[in-house]
Amino acid sequence: MLGASRTENSVAGRANQVGTRLRTLLRPLPLVAGLGAWGALGGAAHPRGGESLESAVVRTLRESRLDADPGSIGFIDGPGSALQSRFRSRRAVARARKGDEPWDVYLLFARTTPEGRLLSVEETHDLTRTSAASETSLVSGRAHAAWAIGDGSRYYRVELADLGGESLPPGEEWTRLSRFQRAVTNLQHTGQLAGVGRRSFKLDPAATKLALALAEDGLHIAADDHTIVVPWSRAAPLQGGRFLREDEREIARPGNLVTWAVDRARDLSWFGDERMQYTKAIAYSLLDRVDRLATRLGGASAAREKPAAEDLGELGAAAPETTDPEIGFPPPPIPPLVSPGFPDEGVWFSLDKDPFVHGNPGVPVPLVTTYVRGDGARPDTRVVVVAWDPRQVEMDAVPGTEEPQSATGETGTGMIPRRPEVMKRLLGAFNGAFQSTHGDYGMQVDGSLIVPPKPYAATIARLSDGAVGFGTWPYDLDVPKDLVSFRQNLTPLVMDGVFNPYGRQWWGGVPHDWEDETHTVRSGLCLTKEGFVLYFYGTKIDHEHLGRTMLAARCVYGVHLDMNQGHTGLELYRVFEKGALPPLEKLDGHFQTEGDVLDMPGYRFRGRRLVRNLQLMHFPRYIRRGARDYFYLLLRPVLPGAPLVPDAAPGAEGAWTTSGLPQRGFPHALATTSLRPDAARPETKVRVLKLDPSVLRAAKAGDATEPLLVVGERRDGRSATGTDVALYVDTRRAVIAKDAPSSSAVRVLAGMTEPRGPVASAFCVDDDGMLLFAEVATAADPPRDGALLAALLARASCRASLYLPSEPIVAIGGARDLSGHPVAVPDAAVRLFRDTTPRARRIFPETPVLPPARWMPLQRQTRIFPKEPEPSPSGSADSPPP
After folding, report:
1. Is 48 strand, coil or helix?
2. Exposed/middle/buried for residue 80 (C-beta within 10 Å: 0-12, 13-18, 19+)
3. What's CA 825's distance to the chain center, in Å?
4. How far is CA 529 from CA 344, 502, 532, 556, in A?
5. How far are the Cα atoms of 31, 259, 263, 266, 268 from residue 34, in angstroms, in the given order?
6. Can you tell me the distance from the alpha carbon of 158 to that of 729, in angstroms, rounded to the nearest whole number?
7. I need a labelling partner for 800 at 20 to 30 A (CA). Which of 3, 376, 676, 789 fits?
């Protein structure tokens, strides 16, 4: 860690010396269990007369097809004695690149004479690998290095590296095994057991001129007219910090031993990904044959009679769920693909009694699950399917700390945002897409581009209106403004009723030139005809049968996600403040757990695997910090919500009702209730109206239908005086503020932030973003009603309030007030109409379907490709691929 104590630095130094000795001793040998060795790069440099050390390094690297910037080369370690120079390497940093690719920062290990002449460059390690951005302004010294990242005209990031080593984050369960795994990974990636510590900073605003310097007190950054100092110690404050934001850059624990060993072997130059794919293909084929033979010899009958409860645990005993006629969820059952089907196969099971799943009060739980058998030749296989209603469930992505490998310098936190308004609504999370080595497929999160998009790649996106988008990326690198986040993988597995429309032959698990028949754990995500989203977790299945299952489930667009046991799976969660976790009779430690939320003091979680035998690494996986990307699900608040009187029965005081109101769709737009909030004033009743701003909008030209609601000021001589805030209706939200939140916001009426003087009614925005209107209906006492309404709004968890000395015009349907009486509506009143509901939908529908000869060359290129004419979908011979 930057700013570590001298003791920590000395320990890191000794660890690096041990690593150097290990490299010297093990250079000609493979590591145990097939991990291999990291061979030396090149031999003696044969120094030339008068040649500088830096020029010799450049020349030696060029012989290895690596071009280096001579002005950037900086040696970290000084020359040793004649004896030391034979056994100890010197570290150096340099800007270098392969061919015409963007510049990266490399850590070099070289041997020199005591006089400083180069003997050899033994190892090179790419520290950045940002193939969509170039590192520049590299400075080094004092065991540190720093550089900037920009687009040629502006600098927008600064990176700081501690070459003495990294520190492991607190709060993680770093066992001896995981520490060993991390050390070996560091040795492979950086040449040092201690690794390289990294800190990342974003310039705000981006700078047109920039200079970096390493000084006694830290890193000095001159960005345009601003001077910024980053102290070596993380605990010390930044100087000029308002122009710089530090991004979280922590380390996630390695995966289990098998998945970690596979990745280590894949990264070996002499073994590589291709040999690993051959190894896996042979292993999968043999395991599948053995498994099928065992089934034929004695397990066929048991496999066919295997009950659902054994696969789904407690869910197998849940009551089947039928489609709700009002909201249309869940979708129709999935017809069995293997005959005869089991009685419970394809039938949706309700999760409303599951203690690990929560939902919105007053409406059905938005998650259901089922299973189907996708392959008749393998009767013990199962595809478990989870369906959710995107009108009640939001979805977003998390970039891992290591995957996907950043192409732009943007960092991945590996964690779901640690904010109460997010964690309290957490429903679950599931795996993402392939590693970067299998295609470099694009990813963006909250507007930060991590990996540029690949053309013709299947894309899952979060849109600016909260909806989820599914579609095939066009021949264009530009990211549309309404795409907030996205993740890509391969080409679509299913599209418009067609399996594998782009004719892809490789779906992971085997070399690219093999016919893909790998039967293993696979996962996928799809959009259905009804606009719902389905997650698929299949065991002992190939891509064909995964696609067949998607088509049977009425998917109109399906994406193949990650594969293999350990990498794939879904976990369900509930998060509470400490002390509020509901009691549970017992926890099955095999697939259920609870604990403290990492990096969020005062909160605990309860979670479980989707199915009992789901073998994810490090269960629970997604509630902690992850090295690989994943998706997470949040409960979207909808009406009616929790009653204002705890445990109020339907129809009782304080219980919301949505019946008899002009909803015009689901989720509900309006809900009403009434109650006597003050026991000391039993004759005083308050009527309350609750609105969901996410499904409402202000009137616009051409509206022909009747409005759902009309709100305006009543001109009766009691208009609010001394107003200091106003109520605004903005895009899918209501805001109470002094000034308009945006240029598109519509001002409704003005009021007071506190109940000063006589008060008759009030508006407020609660923690879920819902807009509430409360008015005293009976036995009004204006001098005391302000305190009564304030207490009621506090009970409703309101975060911003607006008080009025009189009752405004609030007309439901534009015709009647909350008591049901007709009301005259002035022309100046604000009319609110039903808006489209955020849900799941298709994006990029105009992207053509091309044969592999058209799209495959584009996907196999680096992340940056030239702007050439878009390939023709015809596939004619006179139109060669780019």
Report:
1. coil
2. middle
3. 46
4. 23, 21, 7, 6
5. 6, 13, 11, 10, 10
6. 39
7. 676
Question: Is the pLDDT at 761 greater than 60, yes or no?
Answer: yes
CB 720 within 8 A of CB 696: no
pTM of the full structure: 0.89
CA 170 to chain centre: 22
pLDDT tens for each residue of 289-307:
776 666 666 654 444 444 4
Give 221 or 27, the one with higher predicted confidence: 221
Of the CA atoms within 13 Å of residue 286, those in its CB half-sphere come to 6
Between CA 865 and CA 131 the distance in angstroms is 11
Spatial contact of 158 and 164, defined as CB atoms under 8 Å apart: no
SS3 620: coil
- Nearest Cα neighbor of 588 from 314, 854, 400, 838 is 314
**Could you tell me if 614 and 633 are in contact, meaning their C-beta atoms sit under 8 angstroms apart?**
no
Rounded CA Rg of the chain: 31
Strands 725-730 and 733-737: antiparallel
Query: Which residues, other chains included, contact 316 with Cβ-Cβ below 8 Å and sequence gap of 6+?
Result: 307, 308, 309, 310, 344, 349
Residues found in the chain:
882
Q: Which two tokens stand for residue 23?
A: 């490299």
- Average model confidence (pLDDT) across the chain: 85
| Helix, coil or strand: residue 112 | strand
- Contact predicate 93/145, CB 8 Å: yes
Is the pLDDT score of 848 beyond 70?
yes
Residue listed under structure tokens 């998706």: 631
Residue type for position 396: D
Q: What is the pLDDT of residue 721?
A: 59
* Spatial CA neighbour of 1 closest among 255, 236, 254: 236
* Segment (H or E) for 86: helix 84-87
Report the run of H or E that residue 726 belongs to, with start and end: strand 725-730
- Give the percent of the chain with pLDDT over 70: 85
CA atoms within 13 A on the CB side of 515: 2
User: Which pLDDT belongs to residue 879?
Assistant: 36
Q: What is the DSSP string of 185-201?
A: HHHHHHS-TT--EEEEE
Peptide bond before 404: cis, by omega within 30 degrees of 0?
yes
Instruction: Identify whether the C-beta of residue 86 lies closer than 8 Å to the C-beta of residue 70.
Output: no
* Contact yes or no for 59/94 (Cβ under 8 A): no
- 3-class SS of residue 99: coil
Decide: helix, strand or coil at residue 340: coil
Write down the pLDDT at residue 284.
Answer: 67
